[in-house]
From TrEMBL:
This is glutaminase. Keywords: Hydrolase. SUPFAM superfamilies: beta-lactamase/transpeptidase-like. Gene3D superfamilies: DD-peptidase/beta-lactamase superfamily. Its EC number is 3.5.1.2. Belongs to the glutaminase family.
Amino acid sequence: MLQVSFVRDALVEIDRRQAEILDRGIPYTGIAAQTDRSTALFECGWAGVVNGRVEIHVVGETAELWSLQSVSKTEMLARALTHFGMKRVTGELVLFHGSSHFRGTTELRDTNGMPKNPFVNPGAMRVIAALIEHLGGPRAVVDDVLGALNFRLRADTPRFFVDPREAEPVQLAAGGSGNLAVAQELARYDMLFGLEPEVVVETYHTVCATTGTVAATLEAFFHFADGHDVFGRPVLPCEPSWRLLMSSVVALGSYSNAVLDMADRRAGKTGGSGMVVGPTFEGAQGTPPGVFVAASPGLGEDLNPLVAMRAAAMFGELTRTGLFDSRYGMRPGVTAA
């Protein structure tokens, strides 16, 4: 088990392993059996996790493996907290109350153009909000950006993306050819378990999930414009393109999660593969005060507690180092060393 004192130290190692995997051209999915994984647990005794079986885990007590793409998504979630604070971010998520079962991602719908997918939404909030405020609504704009993003990456990373203009014209209930392009590319690597692209994108929920993942990709890219990431690490001149590529691969994995939720629903299963993050109080679900993360039962229940613990560890480290105050978000004027 890799134990470190600071999240930013671990992220350096995680970045190195991600680079090695990308060099080998291995696509990412949200399924543990198909995902290259890296050990990354942190000493954080007060951050607790409750999984679908209501089992309590405390970060630092259990050695587990983490999905690499999930590490990147939790980093986006941490960025959202620094921008908006705990109250607003958790207000956009479905919180876990007592022993009640919170809704799976297949039951979540978008609100005012913002997809309420607890696995994708937090990292996308900033970009979605900007699109709504400055560009008159996200749908058409995000579709255009998706097309430009795919076209821009295609020359360097043809394995992961296709030009939407090459996609077969299919009439969708909402969205555009960019959504189909993503679905076709996922299907190319058997990430959709035999579902046809037209079936994958036929529901409004899935289109909303696509919008969220693209926005999260843009958020992860443009965040580095000031030369530093959320932990204050200097960003090399060449890094934005690397981050854009990495986050785009993550976006494909996120979209795959939404598709799997839809397939799960069609099979008559309940629950979902979402996760919930929120502040806790003394004794809530047996956890000490701090950050509370719950992973739902359903498809992928063995993986999500690991993702949740990783998120809890990251939030705990931000708080422990004084960079993040769980009551107010990122402390004004505080910059990571």
